Amino acid sequence: MKPMEVVGSSKMAENHVIVALGLLVCGWSWVEGTHGEYLIGVGSYDMTGPAADVNMMGYANLEQNTAGIHFRLRARTFIVGESPDGPRFVFVNLDACMASQLLTIKLLQRLNSRFGNLYSEENVAISGTHTHGGPGGYMQYLVYSVTSLGFVKQSFDVIADAIEQSIIQAHNNLKPASIYLNIGEVKDAGINRSPSAYLQNPANERARYPFNVDTEMTLLRFVDGESGESVGAFTWFATHGTSMSNKNKLITGDNKGVAARLFEDWFASQNTSSTTNSLVQAYSRGTSSASAHIQVDDHCKRKHTQANTNTQARNDCRAMAGYALVVASTTLQSHCQWVSPYHTHEVSPLSLTLGHTGSTQD
């Protein structure tokens, strides 16, 4: 596999335009000689939720209530299985700040009633893009429900329904397919949100990394075993979902959600045949806690706007290039691990609240 290094153009660098979520999605032309080492299905379902008078999840701003839609939100899913009766794994990417334990519990109950023990906590993973522009009120913990003024059933139900329906779609669309993998470096795609805090890490630890943000992107691309056409692609990259500011009141998937929508639309425009499969393209969250995806002005003030978000997302989608290796058929395994809260080195219960509050300053 040849690694791919991507650097923004000089014009982009001058304007601090962040490039990269989709730069490593590769080879969308027809692939010859694909055999289908796995059973793979993809699904996508709308989860936009209440677009008026519901507090948004992310910034913890009491005044940031939904008042319209910038881009609709979706739940995107892929399922990989060894065989019709063999092990399988489910990954769901939400245009949401994060999932919640309550959502997972409800989903697994629904899947159990529909599919029996086929899908469980052992093989279902749910992740959020970490957009700060989606309706809140779907978490079970108090600290996350303060600004939403409690639990919002409408928010919860639409997300739970979307996850379930996207999994059902993927389950019903299982077919022989191949997986292509690429891991590459994408530069100029984010900045450290707190470089002074990063410098407090031990010098020997900082010396292990060339940058103060994670620049590695991982891509999984799914190719239909019969047609040789791409049916899905999921990437993981470290950018925070804060291109839209805490003044924004339009529901948005932020940089990752907009990039996914724009790329799916572009792919559809390039493949007009009625026999062509639609593509499910997801931009998943990497190690983005300290990485911001923003523009700044001449006074180093952050500019969070719809135009900023859309421009960044379009740049993310334009330079699709790279290399990928097929993942040879192998035994499929998944593991679930519960973390005990009763650790002898547990920090103060206040740390969650303080950490959440401190992280909302973007």
Automatic annotation (TrEMBL):
It comes from the Eukaryota. One of its GO terms (biological process) is sphingosine biosynthetic process. Residues 38-312 form the Neutral/alkaline non-lysosomal ceramidase N-terminal domain. The keyword Amino-acid biosynthesis does not apply. It is an enzyme of class 3 (hydrolase). The keyword Cytoplasm does not apply. Keywords: Hydrolase, Lipid metabolism, Metal-binding, Sphingolipid metabolism, Zinc. Zn(2+) binds at H130, H240. One of its GO terms (cellular component) is membrane. Its EC number is 3.5.1.23. It catalyses: an N-acylsphing-4-enine + H2O = sphing-4-enine + a fatty acid. GO terms for molecular function: metal ion binding; N-acylsphingosine amidohydrolase activity. Binds 1 zinc ion per subunit. Transmembrane segments: none annotated. Its cofactor is Zn(2+). InterPro entries: Ceramidase_alk, NEUT/ALK_ceramidase_N. Belongs to the neutral ceramidase family. This is Neutral ceramidase. It comes from Phaseolus angularis. The lineage of its organism: Eukaryota, Viridiplantae, Streptophyta, Embryophyta, Tracheophyta.
